[in-house]
Amino acid sequence: MNSSTRSRLYRWDVKASPYLYIAPFFVLFAAFGLFPLGYTAWVSLHDWSLLSDEHTFAGLDNYQRLLGDPYFWNALRNTVSILVLGTVPQLLLALLMAHLLTMRLRGRTFFQMGMLLPNVASVVAVAVIFSQLFGRDFGVINWVLESLGAGRIDWQAGVASSHIAIAVMIIWKWTGYNALIYLAAMQAIPRDMYESATLDGASSIRQLRSITIPMIRPTVIFTVIVSTIYGLQVFAEPQLFAGGGYDTVTGGSSRQFQTLTLYLYEHGFNRGFQFGYASATAWVMFVIIVVIAVLNYLLVRRIRSSS
Amino acid sequence: MRAIHTRRFLAAGLAAGLFCLTACSSSDEPDAASNAGSDGEAITLTIGLFGDFGFEPLYAEYEAAHPGITIEERIAEFSDHHTNLTQRLATGSGTADIEAVEVGFISQFTATPDRFHNLLDLGADQLEDRWLDWKWQQALARDDSALIGLGTDVGGMAMCYRTDLFNEAGLPTDRDEVSQLWPTWEDYVATGQEFMAAADGKYFFESSGNMFRAMIEQAPVGVYDSDDNLIVATSDHVKHAWDLAVEAIEAGMSNQLTAWTPEWTAAFGQGTFATIICPAWMTAYIEGSAPDAEGLWDVASVPGGAGNMGGAHLVLPAQGENPEAAYDLIEWLTAPEQQLKVFQETGNFPSTPELYDDEELTQFSKEYFNDAPIGQIFTEAAQLVQPQYQGPLQGDVLTIIGQGLGRIEEGAQTPDEAWTQVLSDLESLA
Amino acid sequence: MTMQLVKGGEAGPAPRIGRRSHRPVRTLSHRLRPGRLTYLTLLAVMFFSAFPLYFSFVVASQDNSALGRIPPPLLPGANLVDNVRRVFDTVPFGAAMVNSVIVAGTITASVVLFSTLAGFAFAKLRFKGRTALLVVVVATMMVPTQLGIVPLYLLMNQFGWTDSLQAVIMPALVNAFGVFFMTQYLREALPTELLEAGRIDGAATHRLFWHVVLPIARPAAAVLGMLTFLTAWNDYFWPLIVLSSPDNYTVQVALSNLRSGYVTDFSLVLTGTLLATLPLLVVFVVLGKQIIGGIMQGAVKG
């Protein structure tokens, strides 16, 4: 190999290698991420069922039907309600935990690990275990409530109670994880800020609010957005919470905890297998997710800058 | 240069290689089995059921008599089972060689007979007399050109009740006297009132949906007319059944349990309700759910006359690659001798009338049910059943109505609201 | 939506403080003495973290009738071994475990490899469109792939892959988070001088990758691997839709199917839950410290 070939090869290597290295990601992502999303749009414009080989063009019919279906709006309401109930306390709790963990603790690793423990359990496991804990007749939580003199609650039957139960599953699984993320961010805050605050007589909680949170704002925004995206797609928790029968698809007999993903599942992969309709649902969900994520971002940014 | 390529392809191929490895092994298995099958070698037959059909001991017997055949059972939850079957039939892959179909779903599948092996071509054309006529008819395609399934059990109804709870409530416990309490459903509800007045924290029945379904099954025409029109909105009988179920709910008789949930199962063990509609197959669930309640349950007649609730067919999806072997197995499983054994084992009642005067059937009783002569009770029930036409979405329709009653039970809706929603749900179903 | 990455410490040669400041400062940690209330709060949190898992262990060691008992059982019984045996009898749980290991293992290997490759390119190599493409990567982190399930299903059906493990593996072979994570890490941890020195010696890019990048990326790769494995192992929605025969179930699908026996037996279901969680628990106990370090280092959700 002479030196000119070698230098040509070398130049080629320098130029092409980066593209080769990022190619697998983009190729695979295009094939299994982007393409399906685009294809969803195409399918959503058709009367397209798994059970029939005919796919007739239907224009925006599916969207029209979807937006006219009270069950869709019900699912959207449920999803947002569960999202708020599951995310807000979760992140506040995570902040508090992270704050506590910044202190000079004995057994710090123990506490950190204990906090992260729930995150190891799968969503299915979480849903199965909590469905038992929230059982109407023989659940531990109702047993405790009853022993305390409060009555039993039929957790699955009510709108609020079922949303709370599902929110608890989300909170349980994700609080520790977010606490660790916050903790990481908090550890980068310069200590002198707190020292002067302490000299000014600011309490620990006050310091959390006026120093810590503003300082870790980017992290907070990030966790809010990620939790929101996660919350908007909640599926296994309500599905398995229903116990059995067709309620697992409708989210209870009153659809009291049917989420958007469950609604999509009902139409796309259950009764009817209406792929066109399910695809329309998916696209509307996508739009909702983007809108809510952006709103979140703006909102969190504003809260911070006003404080 | 070559090195770059090698590495890169190695890298890209690593994952590909790994999954290909697994994919090949998993997708090769059925092929291998079927290839071997034609040579008379080892065949694995899969059989997909909802719930327990009591076939387990029979498999061993069949395998022993047919070397080379292995039977693999898959059990899924009732509603999942039928949904999944629909999906797998549509995509052309994933079904078992043999699948069970409950009566509420059978006409949905007879509408597409080409997705199943035609059993008339496999030898079933000789066997028509084996089954109750209506059972045979249910699995026939509309134009009678194809038969998609062979009948397993039928669900002639009785009423199971807890003697201990009846006793506590001051009601008679003898099964004949109990039967006399409720010739009609109105009497049944009246008895419920009496029970509720005396019972402390117990319920008269487990769920109103079951009660409603029983009443529907007894009518000559159910939720569909014979032209596949849904008649829920206009049928007096449906409305009457609904109103009576609502009356019972409002009297607090329902334990508000959804069938097949863990809560439902646990309630059997705890004895929280006093009666349950008992098609023959239900006896197995009672026994399985409350093994400690032996002798506490008894069986009386069901109010309102005879009717069939539940029962199943075994079908052979066309994607199954061993239709002959699969057919031989289901023919054997549904033969009278085997149906009798299944009955004795689990309580699933035979759909083959030649057994109905067999003493082994008619004299059968079970200690668990206080030695109730369940053979005789269910034989009479089965013989009295008048066939009722089952529409294409029968199962879904009953589910939707059941959910409506559930909403009333939970206090989420008034009966009127629930009924309105049932009707609109049914509209969007079609 | 770029976020600040905070380096947590032990793992890797990264500087202790994030990009915001490279000047050493005294940080928040170890600043306050915790009071009794702090410990009480933390212990309460520990209790609530552990109780549901403990309870599933309790139920898994009872027979089914224990579930109907009031008060509920709070101490382990003697039926664990029996229940484990029944789990394996009821669903092909062993096969499901193997399937999950194959699925999660393949996905992990692929994600780590491709993310490191792309991360290296984005962090240290110069090429046209680098910034724009990186923005695309970050933006795609927002796209929930779950929403493409209908066409994904049609696609798999077209290929004849429904009800096979490829169908579960293929869509998960890469993810934007991994690329982003590795890019951020390598940008900090990989000394540019080292690469330049290698270049001067005439090393081809793949050599640099192999001999310089990979060793340095190892700690981050381990973390990314663990997070990916966890996510893949616990995935439910897509496998539930695309896998139909029990022989091909992953653990999570098998688990949801355990409820389908003819008498719903909760001790059985929770035994399965426990079995499905156990491998991860073991990993967690052994590698917990590193996982925590990794999460804090990435400061992002997997």
Structure, described:
The complex is a heterotrimer of chains A (307), B (430) and C (302). Chain A has 307 residues and is mainly α. Chain A has two domains: 3-32, no CATH class; 60-303, MetI-like (MetI-like fold, Orthogonal Bundle). Chain A has 14 helices and two strands, in the order αββααααααααααααα. Chain A has helices spanning 3-44, 61-67, 70-101, 108-120, 123-133, 140-147, 159-186, 191-199, 204-215, 217-232, 236-241, 247-250, 260-269, 275-306, and strands spanning 46-48, 55-57. A two-stranded antiparallel sheet of chain A has the order 1-2. In chain A, a hairpin with a 6-residue loop joins strand 1 (46-48) and strand 2. In chain A, helix 4 (108-120) packs across helix 7 and helix 10 runs antiparallel to helix 14 (275-306). Chain A is flat, with a radius of gyration of 25 Å. The termini of chain A are far apart. Chain B has 430 residues and is α/β, with parallel strands linked by helices. Helices cover 50% and strands 14% of the residues of chain B. Chain B has helices at 2-38, 56-65, 78-91, 103-110, 119-122, 133-138, 163-168, 175-181, 185-198, 208-218, 236-250, 262-270, 282-289, 323-333, 336-346, 359-362, 374-384, 394-409, 415-429, and strands at 43-50, 69-76, 98-102, 149-162, 203-205, 273-279, 297-300, 308-315, 349-350. In chain B, helix 2 links the parallel strand 1 and strand 2. In chain B, helix 10 crosses helix 18 and helix 18 (394-409) runs antiparallel to helix 19 (415-429). Chain B starts with a helix and ends with a helix. Chain C folds into two domains: 35-78, no CATH class; 92-297, MetI-like fold, CATH 1.10.3720.10. Chain C is 64% helix and 0% strand. Chain C has twelve helices and no strands. In chain C, helix 3 crosses helix 7, helix 3 (93-124) runs antiparallel to helix 9 and helix 11 (251-257) packs antiparallel against helix 12. Chain C starts with 35 loop residues before the first helix and ends with a helix. Mean pLDDT of chain C is 80; it is low at 1-25. Classes of the chains: A mainly alpha (307), B alpha/beta (430), C mainly alpha (302).
Quick tags:
heterotrimer, A: mainly alpha, MetI-like fold, two-stranded antiparallel sheet, 2 strands, B: 430 residues, alpha/beta, D-Maltodextrin-Binding Protein, domain 2, 19 helices, 50% helix, disordered N terminus
